[in-house]
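Lecture notes, part 5. Sequence design as translation. It can be helpful to think of inverse folding as translation between two languages: the language of shapes and the language of residues. The source text, in structure tokens, appears below.
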């Protein structure tokens, strides 16, 4: 993480974030084209409409490119949604995920959000430890056939 700079949007970041998600989740979880397409489409839509007073996008950039990212999307009635938290595998274990999550939650509090939620799936143990250490609790869990795979989808929530 040394040398990582946290920045907002920059040209090419949509493709870089989409690539990171697509390659990581295809390699480790067998997710298919529909996952990559959803990430790219929804991230592009989010960045086009983001309100800087309520929404956040952070990318960690280092000399070798994108190290990770996170976003906070305020367009949900039930609270702000934490989205696209991911860390490049070469950067795992260096505290970058914790830093991204912490900055995101600090922003949520400053923006006046009262609740943050996220969707993930069972098996992402390192991410789950980060979420629970930050105070998130598991609120829902169910099986779905999605992205070419059967997963146990999980919803975590945090009251601020």
């Amino acid at each position: 993480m040394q040398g990582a700079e946290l920045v907002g949007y920059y040209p090419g970041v949509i493709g870089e974030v989409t690539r990171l998600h697509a390659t990581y989740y295809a390699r480790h979880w067998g997710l298919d084209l529909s996952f990559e397409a959803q990430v790219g489409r929804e991230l592009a839509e989010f960045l086009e409409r983001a309100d800087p007073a309520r929404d956040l996008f952070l990318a960690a950039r280092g000399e070798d490119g994108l190290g990770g990212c996170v976003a906070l999307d305020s367009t949900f009635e039930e609270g702000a949604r934490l989205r696209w938290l991911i860390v490049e595998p070469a950067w795992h274990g260096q505290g970058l995920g914790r830093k991204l999550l912490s900055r995101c939650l600090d922003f949520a509090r400053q923006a006046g959000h009262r609740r943050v939620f996220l969707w993930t799936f069972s098996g992402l143990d390192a991410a789950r430890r980060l979420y629970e250490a930050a105070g998130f609790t598991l609120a829902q869990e169910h099986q779905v056939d999605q992205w070419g795979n059967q997963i146990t989808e999980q919803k975590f929530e945090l009251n601020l």
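The translated text above is only one of many valid answers, since several sequences can fold into similar shapes. The first helix runs from residue 13 to 29.
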